[in-house]
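User: Design a sequence. Structure:
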C-alpha cells in the first residue's frame, strides 16, 4: 500500500513539474516583447533586383538593431522581427500580402512595396488597417497625396520624389554635362518614367530634341535610335529602369551613338552593365541616394564597411534605402515612446534631421524626405565618380 502511495505521489510531482515548466514557458513567451515589421519586396519577377536588394537592407538593419540591444520603450526592451513577403512584381499580389501582414501577422509597420505601382495598389490596405507603410523606392509624387490634395496619412517614402529627381537631373545636365540639346527616352508604362520626364522638361534650360516613349518589356529600340541618330544632341536621358535602359544603351553604342547618357536611380544597378556590356557602359550618369565617394552623412562609410563584412559584397543604393526605412521606424518608435501603429505613424511624420545612410532627412508635410542627391558616373560598367547635387 505504501509503495502504491509513493508511486502516486511521485507521479503527481512529475506531472506538476511538467505543468510548471509549461506554464513557465508560456509565461516567458507571453512576456516576450516583439516589434513586427512587415516587408513587401519583389524577390521574383521583373523588379526582383530591387526587391532582393531592399530585403537584404531591411534584414541587415533588423540584425544590427537586435545586436545592439533592440528598441527600448518606457523601460521595456523589444526585439525586432522582420516578416518578409514576396510581392512577385505584381501589383495585385502587393496589395494581398500587405493585407495579410496587417491582418494575419499583426505587424506594427511595413517597409515596402518596391515600385510606385505596387505601392499605389497597397495603399488601400495600409489605410484600412491604419498601419504606417514606408516605401524605400516608390518615386511618384502621387503616392503620398490623396485625390483631394491632402496627405496620405499612412504612406511614407525613404527616397526623393520623382519631381525632385527630374529637377536635379536637369540641373546636372545643364551645369555639369553642359548639354544644350537632349533626346529623352521614357518608360511610358509607369508614373516613374513620365513623372521624371515632366519634371526634367520643366527645369531643363536647354532644348529637348525629341521624346521617345516605350513600354516596360520592350527590347527593340533600333527604329527609335535610327530616327534620332543624325540629329544634333549632346546627351540622351533615359527615364526608366535598367532592364530597358541597358538594351537602349547597348543598341545606341552599337550604332555609334556615344554621347553621355543620364538617368534616374532606376539605372543604378550592376545589371545595367550586364545587359549593355561593360564596354558600352561608359559616359553614363545615374542619380543615386548615396555613395561612399561622396557621402552625405557620416553614416554611409561605416554602413558599407559593416555590410561588406557581413555579406561579402557592397550594398546597393536600394539596400541602403531599405536600411534607412527600418531605422526611421525605429526612430519614430523611440520618439513617440510607443509601438502602437498610430503613434509610429505620428513619429514618422515628424522625423527631423535623421542621419541616414542616404542623407540627413526631415519629412515634409507630404511625407517626402528632404535630402540631397548624388550623381554617379560609370566607366566600363563600374561606378567611378560621384557628385552631390543640392
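Assistant: Done.
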Amino acid at each position: 500500500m505504501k509503495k502504491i502511495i509513493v508511486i502516486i505521489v511521485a507521479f503527481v510531482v512529475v506531472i506538476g513539474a511538467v505543468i510548471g515548466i509549461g506554464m513557465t514557458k508560456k509565461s516567458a513567451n507571453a512576456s516576450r516583447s516583439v516589434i513586427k515589421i512587415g516587408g513587401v519586396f519583389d524577390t521574383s519577377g521583373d523588379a526582383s533586383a530591387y526587391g532582393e536588394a531592399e530585403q537584404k537592407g531591411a534584414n541587415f538593419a533588423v540584425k544590427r538593431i537586435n545586436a545592439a540591444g533592440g528598441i527600448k520603450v518606457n523601460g521595456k526592451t523589444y526585439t525586432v522581427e522582420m516578416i518578409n513577403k514576396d510581392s512577385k512584381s505584381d501589383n495585385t499580389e502587393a496589395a494581398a500580402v500587405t493585407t495579410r501582414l496587417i491582418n494575419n501577422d499583426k505587424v506594427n509597420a511595413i517597409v515596402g512595396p518596391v515600385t510606385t505601382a505596387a505601392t499605389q495598389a497597397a495603399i488601400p490596405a495600409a489605410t484600412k488597417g491604419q498601419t504606417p507603410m514606408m516605401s524605400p523606392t516608390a518615386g511618384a509624387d502621387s503616392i503620398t497625396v490623396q485625390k483631394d490634395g491632402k496627405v496620405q496619412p499612412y504612406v511614407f517614402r525613404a527616397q526623393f520624389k520623382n519631381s525632385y529627381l527630374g529637377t536635379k537631373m536637369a540641373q546636372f545636365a545643364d551645369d555639369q554635362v553642359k548639354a544644350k540639346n537632349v533626346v529623352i527616352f521614357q518608360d511610358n508604362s509607369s508614373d516613374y518614367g513620365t513623372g521624371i520626364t515632366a519634371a526634367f522638361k520643366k527645369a531643363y534650360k536647354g532644348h529637348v530634341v525629341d521624346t521617345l516613349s516605350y513600354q516596360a518589356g520592350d527590347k527593340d529600340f533600333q527604329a527609335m535610335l535610327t530616327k534620332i541618330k543624325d540629329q544634333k544632341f549632346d546627351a540622351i536621358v533615359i527615364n526608366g529602369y535598367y532592364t530597358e535602359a541597358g538594351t537602349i544603351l547597348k543598341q545606341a553604342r552599337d550604332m555609334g551613338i556615344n554621347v553621355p547618357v543620364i538617368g534616374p536611380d532606376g539605372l543604378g544597378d550592376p545589371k545595367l552593365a550586364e545587359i549593355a556590356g561593360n564596354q558600352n557602359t561608359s559616359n553614363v550618369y545615374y542619380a543615386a541616394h548615396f555613395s561612399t565617394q561622396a557621402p552625405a552623412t557620416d553614416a554611409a562609410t561605416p554602413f558599407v564597411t559593416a555590410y561588406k563584412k557581413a555579406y561579402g559584397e557592397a550594398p546597393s543604393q536600394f539596400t541602403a534605402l531599405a536600411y534607412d526605412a527600418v531605422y526611421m521606424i525605429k526612430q519614430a518608435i523611440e520618439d513617440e515612446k510607443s509601438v502602437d501603429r498610430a503613434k509610429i505613424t505620428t513619429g514618422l511624420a515628424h522625423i527631423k534631421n535623421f542621419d541616414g545612410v542616404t542623407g540627413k532627412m526631415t519629412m515634409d508635410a507630404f511625407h517626402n524626405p528632404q535630402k540631397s542627391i548624388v550623381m554617379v558616373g560609370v566607366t566600363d560598367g563600374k561606378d567611378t565618380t560621384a557628385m552631390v547635387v543640392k
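Residues 1-32 have pLDDT under 50 and may be disordered. The longest strand covers residues 76-86.
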